[in-house]
Design brief:
Layout (H helix, E strand, L loop, with lengths): L1 E4 L18 E6 L1 H4 L11 E5 L7 E3 L22 E7 L3 E2 L13 E5 L17 E2 L1 H10 L3 E4 L13 H8 L3 E4 L12 E4 L10 E3 L3 E4 L1
Parallel strand pairs: 5-7, 6-8, 7-9, 9-10
Antiparallel strand pairs: 1-13, 2-3, 4-10, 4-12, 5-11, 11-13
Helix pairs in contact: 2-3
Length: 214
Amino acid sequence: MRLVELNHVIEPGMVTYAGLPGPVICDYLSREASRGKYAEGTEFQIGRIDMVANTGTYLDTPFHRYADGDDLAAFPLGKVTALPGLVVRADGAVGPEVFAGLDLAGKAVLVHTGWDRHWGTGAYFTGHPYLTEAAALALRAAGVALVGIDSHNIDDTAGMARPVHTVLLHAGIAIVEHLTNLGALPDTGFIFNAPPPRIRGMGTFPVRAHALID
């Protein structure tokens, strides 16, 4: 068995989505300050982070799009972990033809575009690959468990509509955006995991997405 990391490391100030602030990471209790609270020779660090939920590699649950949808606390663990995975290699506007003839039911379908090569640069935010609404409808009809992409957004951000989010999240299909390292995965034969913490009243949060390859 081999584990493959599919997530970006969260670092101070990094920008995931243009217009949203990067995280602030600091000490709540530093090691130096802790020395006066514990026995001699004992010290701890307690960290603090201030960030928007859409930071790094993150999972979208239905609450992100729908007020009455499952939030992070309510979304079933079985829909984000221990999922048989399938990688599709594509670029540009990814349509339903890319998924034609594939066994998609119950799978985490990960779209490998290679756009993560632009991570950390201004090029990441514009002209990125995305799924079309027709692709989302095809994936929903096929009964996929989860859809992920290694791009800036699963939708086309040139406009303000978000049809892919709308179709998938309405059907209870989670989305993982800003994946990375999908080129290290085989097309099939792996297990995908991306569980978030259980937080009420939030629909999105960073995940340590990874694959287990047999």
